[in-house]
Each structure stands twice: as C-alpha cells, then as structure tokens.
Amino acid sequence: MFEYLGKLNSKGNYVRKMRIKLQYWAKQKIHEKVCDIAHSYGIRVSWINPKNSSALAFVGIGKVIRSNKKDICEFTTGKKYHADLNALYNIGARYFIREILNPLSEKERSQYQAKDR
Q1: So which domain of life are we looking at (predicted)?
Q2: Same domain, 90 and 62
Q3: Looking at CB atoms within 10 Å, which of 23, 56, 101, 105 has the fewest?
C-alpha cells in the first residue's frame, strides 16, 4: 500500500523547482517498479488516503495523545503504542474497508461491522 501524498508543490526559484520535479519523477519510477514487481508475484497495490492515519486510534476510540517526541501515542484507555505502528494499522484498515467491505451489500457489510453496546 502506498500513501497518496499528492503532487509536490513547486514554489520558489528555478533550482528548487527542478529538484522537486526530479524527486517527483523518481517517486513515480519507484512506484512503477514496485507495482511491476508486485503484479509479477500476484500482489495487489493500492493508494490509501493518509489523512489522520496517525492522529486517530486504530481501535476506533477517537484521537490519540502524542508524546513530546511524537513517537509514542497514548489512547484514551491508557494503552501506549508506537505512532508509526498505529498509523500502519489505520492504513491497513482503510484498505480492508475499501477493497473488501465496500463491494458487499449493506446486509453482508453489517455482519462485519462492530456493534455498539
């Protein structure tokens, strides 16, 4: 899975614009190469929206509190996780929801969703 971060902005002088364009092209080449290798092994590749991926708890209880160094996040329940691991779980869940649950009918989808007590 790739995070879709959009195109890079090219504000500033000519040298900076060219450096940003080259980085964007290199990013595209890396993406194409990874996609080719993944498809040759039968692996799916998908772009996922990264919005709030590390700001929200992966267990669905809302926002997290970040440490001063921004590497540890604490849930409202008191559990502590690494912020990158939390973001990885969120991105994986978004892929699961989009690719597997959305094509299902509403009745089938309701069987997989959490039930509030």
Answers
A1: Bacteria
A2: yes
A3: 105
12 shares its domain with 63: no
Query: Which residues have a Cβ under 8 Å from the Cβ of 55 and sit 6 or more positions away?
Result: 63, 64
State pLDDT tens for residues 83-100: 888 888 888 888 887 887
Residue 88: closest CA among 48, 32, 43: 48
pLDDT digits (tens, 9 = 90+) for 57-82: 887 788 888 888 888 888 888 888 88
Report pLDDT for 36: 92
| Residue 61 and residue 14 share a domain | no
Whether 113 and 71 map to the same domain: the answer is yes
Residue where the block lists tokens 């290199």: 26
Amino acid in position 37:
I
Which pair of tokens denotes residue 72?
A: 């540890």
Token pair of 88 as six digits: 């990885």
- The alpha carbon of 105 is separated from its chain's Cα centroid by a whole number of angstroms, namely 25
